[in-house]
Amino acid sequence: MTTYPPGRHDFTRSAPVRLWEDGFASDPHRYYAALRAQGPIGWAELAPGVPAYLVTDRRAALDVLHDQETFSHDPRAWESTVPADSPVLGMMRWRPNALFADGAAHVRYRTTLIDVFDLVEPHDLRARVHRAVRLLVGRIGPRGGADLVGDFSRPLMALVFNDLFGLPDSHGDRLNEGLGKMMEGGAQAAEGEAQYAQYVLELIAAKAERPGDDLPSRLLDHPAGLTLEEVTWQVFLTLGAGYEPTANLLSNTLSRILGNPAYYSTLTSGARPVMDAVVEVLHHETPLANYGIYYARRPVAFHGVWLRDAVPVVVSYGALGHFAEREATGGRHPNDASHLSWGAGPHTCPVKQHTLLLVTEAIERLTQWLPDLDPVLPRERLSWRPGPFHRSLTALPVRFSPRSPDQPGVPS
After folding, report:
1. With respect to CATH, is domain 11-399 assigned 1.10.3720.10?
2. pLDDT per position as a tens digit, 83-117
3. What b-and-e string marks burial along 151-185, b requiring 16 or more CB atoms within 10 Å of the CB?
4. d(CA 89, CA 91)
5. What are the sequence ranges of the domains in the chain?
6. Model's pTM, two decimal places?
Protein backbone atom coordinates (compact mmCIF):
# COMPACT_ATOMS: atom_id res chain seq x y z
CA MET A 1 0.00 0.00 0.00
CA THR A 2 1.34 3.43 -0.97
CA THR A 3 1.90 5.87 1.91
CA TYR A 4 2.18 9.65 1.72
CA PRO A 5 3.49 12.35 4.10
CA PRO A 6 1.16 13.31 6.97
CA GLY A 7 -1.65 15.72 6.15
CA ARG A 8 -1.37 19.23 7.55
CA HIS A 9 -4.44 20.88 6.04
CA ASP A 10 -8.15 20.20 6.19
CA PHE A 11 -9.98 22.54 3.81
CA THR A 12 -13.48 21.67 4.92
CA ARG A 13 -13.97 24.97 6.78
CA SER A 14 -12.37 27.11 4.03
CA ALA A 15 -14.20 29.01 1.30
CA PRO A 16 -13.81 27.02 -1.92
CA VAL A 17 -12.74 28.45 -5.29
CA ARG A 18 -15.98 28.36 -7.30
CA LEU A 19 -15.41 26.89 -10.75
CA TRP A 20 -19.08 27.25 -11.65
CA GLU A 21 -18.85 31.05 -11.78
CA ASP A 22 -18.96 32.85 -15.13
CA GLY A 23 -15.54 34.32 -14.37
CA PHE A 24 -13.97 30.87 -14.53
CA ALA A 25 -14.91 30.52 -18.19
CA SER A 26 -13.43 33.90 -19.10
CA ASP A 27 -10.20 33.61 -17.07
CA PRO A 28 -9.60 30.08 -15.74
CA HIS A 29 -5.92 30.63 -15.01
CA ARG A 30 -6.77 33.22 -12.35
CA TYR A 31 -8.80 30.54 -10.58
CA TYR A 32 -6.04 27.96 -11.03
CA ALA A 33 -3.56 30.40 -9.49
CA ALA A 34 -5.80 30.79 -6.44
CA LEU A 35 -6.01 27.02 -6.10
CA ARG A 36 -2.27 26.52 -6.62
CA ALA A 37 -1.58 29.06 -3.87
CA GLN A 38 -3.13 26.55 -1.47
CA GLY A 39 -0.50 23.93 -2.37
CA PRO A 40 -0.49 20.84 -4.61
CA ILE A 41 -4.18 20.35 -3.85
CA GLY A 42 -6.78 23.11 -3.60
CA TRP A 43 -10.34 23.32 -2.32
CA ALA A 44 -12.84 24.03 -5.10
CA GLU A 45 -16.56 23.93 -5.80
CA LEU A 46 -17.86 22.31 -9.01
CA ALA A 47 -21.42 23.52 -8.47
CA PRO A 48 -23.15 25.29 -5.59
CA GLY A 49 -22.74 23.01 -2.58
CA VAL A 50 -20.57 20.45 -4.44
CA PRO A 51 -16.99 20.74 -3.11
CA ALA A 52 -13.97 18.96 -4.56
CA TYR A 53 -10.23 18.67 -4.10
CA LEU A 54 -8.50 20.04 -7.20
CA VAL A 55 -5.03 18.64 -7.97
CA THR A 56 -2.79 21.25 -9.64
CA ASP A 57 0.64 19.65 -9.09
CA ARG A 58 2.10 17.14 -11.54
CA ARG A 59 3.60 14.76 -8.95
CA ALA A 60 0.37 14.65 -6.95
CA ALA A 61 -1.62 14.17 -10.17
CA LEU A 62 0.50 11.20 -11.24
CA ASP A 63 0.04 9.65 -7.81
CA VAL A 64 -3.73 9.92 -8.13
CA LEU A 65 -3.73 8.58 -11.68
CA HIS A 66 -1.60 5.53 -10.84
CA ASP A 67 -2.54 4.63 -7.24
CA GLN A 68 -5.51 2.28 -7.57
CA GLU A 69 -5.26 1.15 -3.95
CA THR A 70 -5.95 4.64 -2.62
CA PHE A 71 -8.20 6.09 -5.34
CA SER A 72 -11.26 4.82 -7.16
CA HIS A 73 -13.27 6.03 -10.15
CA ASP A 74 -16.53 4.81 -8.61
CA PRO A 75 -18.64 7.83 -7.53
CA ARG A 76 -21.53 6.03 -5.81
CA ALA A 77 -20.53 6.93 -2.24
CA TRP A 78 -20.29 10.58 -3.31
CA GLU A 79 -23.60 10.47 -5.21
CA SER A 80 -25.49 9.79 -2.00
CA THR A 81 -24.23 13.10 -0.56
CA VAL A 82 -25.43 15.47 -3.30
CA PRO A 83 -28.94 16.66 -4.20
CA ALA A 84 -30.72 14.66 -6.89
CA ASP A 85 -31.02 17.81 -9.01
CA SER A 86 -27.34 18.79 -8.84
CA PRO A 87 -26.30 20.13 -12.27
CA VAL A 88 -23.04 18.13 -12.27
CA LEU A 89 -24.67 14.72 -11.81
CA GLY A 90 -25.07 14.24 -15.55
CA MET A 91 -21.29 14.25 -15.92
CA MET A 92 -20.42 12.52 -12.65
CA ARG A 93 -23.08 9.93 -11.76
CA TRP A 94 -22.10 6.25 -11.80
CA ARG A 95 -22.78 4.17 -14.88
CA PRO A 96 -21.54 0.65 -15.72
CA ASN A 97 -18.89 1.74 -18.21
CA ALA A 98 -15.11 2.02 -18.48
CA LEU A 99 -14.92 5.51 -17.00
CA PHE A 100 -16.56 4.68 -13.68
CA ALA A 101 -15.18 1.16 -13.19
CA ASP A 102 -12.11 -0.15 -11.38
CA GLY A 103 -10.20 -3.41 -11.47
CA ALA A 104 -11.44 -6.35 -13.55
CA ALA A 105 -14.63 -4.59 -14.67
CA HIS A 106 -12.61 -1.66 -15.98
CA VAL A 107 -10.22 -3.96 -17.85
CA ARG A 108 -13.15 -5.80 -19.44
CA TYR A 109 -14.90 -2.65 -20.60
CA ARG A 110 -11.72 -0.92 -21.72
CA THR A 111 -10.52 -3.95 -23.70
CA THR A 112 -13.75 -4.10 -25.68
CA LEU A 113 -13.52 -0.40 -26.53
CA ILE A 114 -9.90 -0.68 -27.65
CA ASP A 115 -10.74 -3.72 -29.77
CA VAL A 116 -13.60 -2.07 -31.65
CA PHE A 117 -11.77 1.23 -32.19
CA ASP A 118 -8.70 -0.64 -33.43
CA LEU A 119 -10.87 -1.82 -36.33
CA VAL A 120 -11.20 1.80 -37.49
CA GLU A 121 -8.22 2.04 -39.83
CA PRO A 122 -6.48 5.41 -40.24
CA HIS A 123 -7.31 5.59 -43.95
CA ASP A 124 -10.97 4.93 -43.16
CA LEU A 125 -11.12 7.64 -40.49
CA ARG A 126 -9.29 10.04 -42.81
CA ALA A 127 -11.85 9.41 -45.56
CA ARG A 128 -14.73 10.06 -43.17
CA VAL A 129 -13.15 13.36 -42.10
CA HIS A 130 -12.58 14.42 -45.70
CA ARG A 131 -16.21 13.68 -46.57
CA ALA A 132 -17.45 15.71 -43.60
CA VAL A 133 -15.16 18.68 -44.31
CA ARG A 134 -16.17 18.72 -47.96
CA LEU A 135 -19.85 18.70 -47.01
CA LEU A 136 -19.42 21.57 -44.54
CA VAL A 137 -17.26 23.65 -46.89
CA GLY A 138 -20.02 23.19 -49.45
CA ARG A 139 -22.37 24.86 -46.98
CA ILE A 140 -20.19 27.69 -45.69
CA GLY A 141 -17.74 28.27 -48.56
CA PRO A 142 -19.99 30.36 -50.82
CA ARG A 143 -20.96 32.63 -47.90
CA GLY A 144 -17.50 34.08 -47.32
CA GLY A 145 -17.92 33.89 -43.56
CA ALA A 146 -18.72 31.38 -40.84
CA ASP A 147 -18.57 30.51 -37.17
CA LEU A 148 -15.93 27.79 -36.95
CA VAL A 149 -17.55 26.44 -33.78
CA GLY A 150 -21.21 26.25 -34.77
CA ASP A 151 -20.71 25.91 -38.53
CA PHE A 152 -17.66 23.66 -38.59
CA SER A 153 -16.14 22.06 -35.47
CA ARG A 154 -19.30 20.82 -33.81
CA PRO A 155 -21.18 19.72 -36.94
CA LEU A 156 -18.03 18.06 -38.28
CA MET A 157 -17.73 15.92 -35.15
CA ALA A 158 -21.42 15.11 -35.31
CA LEU A 159 -21.02 13.96 -38.92
CA VAL A 160 -17.94 11.84 -38.23
CA PHE A 161 -19.17 10.24 -35.02
CA ASN A 162 -22.66 9.57 -36.32
CA ASP A 163 -20.96 7.94 -39.32
CA LEU A 164 -18.79 5.76 -37.06
CA PHE A 165 -21.77 4.85 -34.88
CA GLY A 166 -24.03 4.01 -37.81
CA LEU A 167 -26.40 6.98 -37.79
CA PRO A 168 -27.40 9.30 -40.65
CA ASP A 169 -26.08 12.84 -40.94
CA SER A 170 -29.49 14.24 -40.03
CA HIS A 171 -29.08 13.15 -36.38
CA GLY A 172 -26.30 15.64 -35.67
CA ASP A 173 -28.43 18.41 -34.16
CA ARG A 174 -29.87 16.09 -31.50
CA LEU A 175 -26.42 14.90 -30.48
CA ASN A 176 -25.09 18.45 -30.28
CA GLU A 177 -28.00 19.77 -28.23
CA GLY A 178 -28.08 17.05 -25.58
CA LEU A 179 -24.34 16.83 -24.99
CA GLY A 180 -23.88 20.59 -25.03
CA LYS A 181 -26.37 21.11 -22.20
CA MET A 182 -24.94 18.25 -20.15
CA MET A 183 -21.32 19.40 -20.44
CA GLU A 184 -22.04 22.94 -19.24
CA GLY A 185 -23.41 21.59 -15.98
CA GLY A 186 -25.93 24.41 -15.63
CA ALA A 187 -29.69 24.67 -15.23
CA GLN A 188 -30.32 22.63 -18.40
CA ALA A 189 -27.90 19.81 -17.52
CA ALA A 190 -30.58 17.30 -16.48
CA GLU A 191 -32.57 18.00 -19.65
CA GLY A 192 -29.44 17.52 -21.76
CA GLU A 193 -28.59 14.26 -20.01
CA ALA A 194 -32.10 12.93 -20.69
CA GLN A 195 -31.93 13.98 -24.35
CA TYR A 196 -28.56 12.37 -24.85
CA ALA A 197 -29.57 9.18 -23.01
CA GLN A 198 -32.64 8.86 -25.24
CA TYR A 199 -30.43 9.36 -28.29
CA VAL A 200 -28.16 6.48 -27.21
CA LEU A 201 -31.05 4.18 -26.22
CA GLU A 202 -32.64 4.61 -29.65
CA LEU A 203 -29.29 3.94 -31.32
CA ILE A 204 -28.67 0.70 -29.41
CA ALA A 205 -32.21 -0.54 -29.99
CA ALA A 206 -31.78 0.03 -33.72
CA LYS A 207 -28.42 -1.75 -33.83
CA ALA A 208 -29.66 -4.70 -31.77
CA GLU A 209 -32.44 -5.17 -34.30
CA ARG A 210 -30.37 -4.49 -37.41
CA PRO A 211 -26.56 -4.65 -36.91
CA GLY A 212 -24.26 -2.88 -39.35
CA ASP A 213 -20.62 -2.08 -40.01
CA ASP A 214 -20.35 0.33 -37.09
CA LEU A 215 -18.99 0.61 -33.56
CA PRO A 216 -22.18 -0.25 -31.59
CA SER A 217 -22.72 -3.39 -33.67
CA ARG A 218 -19.14 -4.47 -33.02
CA LEU A 219 -19.62 -3.94 -29.29
CA LEU A 220 -22.79 -6.04 -29.37
CA ASP A 221 -20.89 -8.79 -31.18
CA HIS A 222 -17.69 -8.64 -29.09
CA PRO A 223 -16.56 -11.96 -27.53
CA ALA A 224 -16.50 -10.33 -24.09
CA GLY A 225 -20.27 -10.81 -24.15
CA LEU A 226 -21.37 -7.42 -22.86
CA THR A 227 -25.04 -7.20 -21.96
CA LEU A 228 -27.30 -4.82 -23.83
CA GLU A 229 -27.18 -2.46 -20.84
CA GLU A 230 -23.37 -2.58 -20.73
CA VAL A 231 -23.13 -1.86 -24.45
CA THR A 232 -25.54 1.05 -24.02
CA TRP A 233 -23.35 2.64 -21.36
CA GLN A 234 -20.11 2.08 -23.28
CA VAL A 235 -21.68 3.91 -26.22
CA PHE A 236 -22.96 6.63 -23.87
CA LEU A 237 -19.36 7.11 -22.76
CA THR A 238 -17.52 6.82 -26.07
CA LEU A 239 -19.90 8.84 -28.21
CA GLY A 240 -20.00 11.62 -25.62
CA ALA A 241 -16.28 11.56 -24.82
CA GLY A 242 -15.50 11.45 -28.53
CA TYR A 243 -17.82 14.13 -29.83
CA GLU A 244 -17.77 17.00 -27.34
CA PRO A 245 -14.08 17.15 -26.26
CA THR A 246 -12.83 16.53 -29.81
CA ALA A 247 -15.01 19.33 -31.17
CA ASN A 248 -13.56 21.61 -28.51
CA LEU A 249 -9.99 20.51 -29.25
CA LEU A 250 -10.60 21.31 -32.92
CA SER A 251 -12.10 24.76 -32.34
CA ASN A 252 -9.56 25.69 -29.65
CA THR A 253 -6.73 24.73 -32.00
CA LEU A 254 -8.22 26.70 -34.89
CA SER A 255 -8.53 29.69 -32.57
CA ARG A 256 -4.90 29.46 -31.53
CA ILE A 257 -3.72 29.12 -35.13
CA LEU A 258 -5.82 31.98 -36.49
CA GLY A 259 -4.98 34.24 -33.56
CA ASN A 260 -1.31 34.26 -34.58
CA PRO A 261 -0.85 35.31 -38.24
CA ALA A 262 2.80 34.25 -38.33
CA TYR A 263 1.87 30.86 -36.93
CA TYR A 264 -0.97 30.48 -39.42
CA SER A 265 1.27 31.24 -42.38
CA THR A 266 3.81 28.59 -41.35
CA LEU A 267 1.04 26.01 -41.02
CA THR A 268 -0.64 26.77 -44.34
CA SER A 269 2.73 26.73 -46.11
CA GLY A 270 3.59 23.36 -44.57
CA ALA A 271 6.65 24.73 -42.74
CA ARG A 272 5.15 23.86 -39.36
CA PRO A 273 2.93 20.87 -38.59
CA VAL A 274 -0.60 21.30 -37.28
CA MET A 275 0.33 18.96 -34.44
CA ASP A 276 2.41 21.74 -32.86
CA ALA A 277 -0.73 23.83 -32.43
CA VAL A 278 -2.69 20.88 -31.07
CA VAL A 279 -0.02 20.25 -28.41
CA GLU A 280 -0.03 23.93 -27.45
CA VAL A 281 -3.78 23.75 -26.92
CA LEU A 282 -3.41 20.62 -24.80
CA HIS A 283 -1.07 22.66 -22.59
CA HIS A 284 -3.04 25.91 -22.40
CA GLU A 285 -6.69 25.21 -23.28
CA THR A 286 -7.21 21.50 -22.98
CA PRO A 287 -10.85 20.69 -23.79
CA LEU A 288 -11.49 18.49 -20.72
CA ALA A 289 -9.89 20.84 -18.24
CA ASN A 290 -11.21 19.29 -15.02
CA TYR A 291 -12.52 15.82 -15.68
CA GLY A 292 -9.98 13.45 -14.15
CA ILE A 293 -12.32 12.61 -11.27
CA TYR A 294 -11.37 10.14 -8.54
CA TYR A 295 -12.43 9.39 -4.95
CA ALA A 296 -10.32 8.39 -1.97
CA ARG A 297 -11.35 4.91 -0.86
CA ARG A 298 -10.91 5.98 2.78
CA PRO A 299 -9.82 9.18 4.57
CA VAL A 300 -6.13 9.57 3.76
CA ALA A 301 -3.21 11.97 4.16
CA PHE A 302 -2.10 12.92 0.66
CA HIS A 303 0.53 15.51 -0.31
CA GLY A 304 -0.01 17.48 2.87
CA VAL A 305 -3.81 17.40 2.80
CA TRP A 306 -6.32 15.27 4.69
CA LEU A 307 -8.60 13.89 1.99
CA ARG A 308 -12.05 12.79 3.01
CA ASP A 309 -13.73 9.90 1.24
CA ALA A 310 -16.89 10.62 -0.78
CA VAL A 311 -15.44 13.94 -1.96
CA PRO A 312 -14.26 14.22 -5.60
CA VAL A 313 -10.51 14.44 -6.15
CA VAL A 314 -10.21 16.18 -9.52
CA VAL A 315 -6.99 16.06 -11.53
CA SER A 316 -7.01 19.49 -13.20
CA TYR A 317 -5.51 18.94 -16.64
CA GLY A 318 -6.11 22.62 -17.37
CA ALA A 319 -4.06 23.76 -14.38
CA LEU A 320 -1.36 21.14 -14.91
CA GLY A 321 -0.65 22.24 -18.48
CA HIS A 322 -0.58 25.90 -17.48
CA PHE A 323 1.80 25.42 -14.56
CA ALA A 324 3.99 22.91 -16.40
CA GLU A 325 4.64 25.54 -19.07
CA ARG A 326 5.45 28.22 -16.50
CA GLU A 327 7.68 26.00 -14.38
CA ALA A 328 9.68 24.45 -17.22
CA THR A 329 13.36 25.30 -17.35
CA GLY A 330 15.11 25.65 -20.67
CA GLY A 331 13.51 24.91 -24.01
CA ARG A 332 10.54 22.67 -24.58
CA HIS A 333 9.93 20.58 -27.65
CA PRO A 334 6.33 21.08 -28.81
CA ASN A 335 5.62 17.35 -28.54
CA ASP A 336 6.44 17.24 -24.82
CA ALA A 337 3.51 15.49 -23.12
CA SER A 338 3.80 17.03 -19.66
CA HIS A 339 0.30 18.46 -20.00
CA LEU A 340 -1.19 15.04 -19.04
CA SER A 341 -4.33 15.85 -21.05
CA TRP A 342 -4.61 12.22 -22.13
CA GLY A 343 -4.43 11.10 -18.52
CA ALA A 344 -2.02 8.47 -17.23
CA GLY A 345 -2.18 5.05 -15.63
CA PRO A 346 -5.01 2.54 -16.18
CA HIS A 347 -7.48 5.18 -17.37
CA THR A 348 -5.25 6.78 -20.02
CA CYS A 349 -7.32 7.81 -23.06
CA PRO A 350 -7.56 4.68 -25.24
CA VAL A 351 -8.21 6.55 -28.51
CA LYS A 352 -5.53 9.25 -28.45
CA GLN A 353 -4.26 8.50 -31.97
CA HIS A 354 -7.75 8.49 -33.47
CA THR A 355 -8.44 11.88 -31.88
CA LEU A 356 -5.20 13.43 -33.10
CA LEU A 357 -5.72 12.12 -36.63
CA LEU A 358 -9.27 13.44 -36.72
CA VAL A 359 -8.34 16.94 -35.54
CA THR A 360 -5.20 17.39 -37.65
CA GLU A 361 -6.89 16.08 -40.81
CA ALA A 362 -9.86 18.40 -40.30
CA ILE A 363 -7.62 21.46 -39.90
CA GLU A 364 -5.37 20.59 -42.83
CA ARG A 365 -8.34 19.94 -45.09
CA LEU A 366 -10.19 23.09 -44.07
CA THR A 367 -7.16 25.34 -44.59
CA GLN A 368 -6.52 23.77 -48.00
CA TRP A 369 -10.03 24.60 -49.12
CA LEU A 370 -10.21 27.99 -47.37
CA PRO A 371 -6.59 29.20 -47.19
CA ASP A 372 -7.33 32.82 -46.25
CA LEU A 373 -9.32 32.36 -43.05
CA ASP A 374 -9.36 35.68 -41.19
CA PRO A 375 -10.69 35.97 -37.62
CA VAL A 376 -13.38 38.61 -37.13
CA LEU A 377 -12.47 39.19 -33.47
CA PRO A 378 -9.11 39.33 -31.72
CA ARG A 379 -8.54 36.28 -29.57
CA GLU A 380 -8.93 38.12 -26.28
CA ARG A 381 -12.49 39.09 -27.22
CA LEU A 382 -13.70 35.55 -27.84
CA SER A 383 -16.16 34.17 -25.29
CA TRP A 384 -16.15 30.76 -23.62
CA ARG A 385 -18.98 28.48 -22.53
CA PRO A 386 -19.55 28.18 -18.78
CA GLY A 387 -18.95 24.97 -16.88
CA PRO A 388 -16.34 23.50 -14.52
CA PHE A 389 -15.32 20.55 -16.67
CA HIS A 390 -14.46 21.88 -20.11
CA ARG A 391 -12.70 24.64 -22.06
CA SER A 392 -15.04 25.39 -24.92
CA LEU A 393 -15.46 28.41 -27.20
CA THR A 394 -18.91 29.88 -27.69
CA ALA A 395 -18.10 30.99 -31.25
CA LEU A 396 -15.15 31.57 -33.58
CA PRO A 397 -16.30 33.95 -36.34
CA VAL A 398 -14.12 34.18 -39.47
CA ARG A 399 -14.26 35.67 -42.94
CA PHE A 400 -12.67 34.32 -46.12
CA SER A 401 -12.85 34.51 -49.90
CA PRO A 402 -16.01 32.68 -51.04
CA ARG A 403 -15.19 29.25 -52.47
CA SER A 404 -16.89 26.03 -53.41
CA PRO A 405 -15.39 22.55 -53.09
CA ASP A 406 -16.15 22.05 -56.80
CA GLN A 407 -14.31 25.07 -58.18
CA PRO A 408 -10.90 24.69 -59.87
CA GLY A 409 -7.87 24.72 -57.58
CA VAL A 410 -9.72 23.28 -54.59
CA PRO A 411 -8.45 19.88 -53.38
CA SER A 412 -10.65 16.90 -54.18
Report:
1. no
2. 999 999 999 999 999 999 999 999 999 999 999 99
3. bbbbbbbbbbbbbbbbbeeebbebbbbbbbbbbbb
4. 5
5. 11-399
6. 0.92
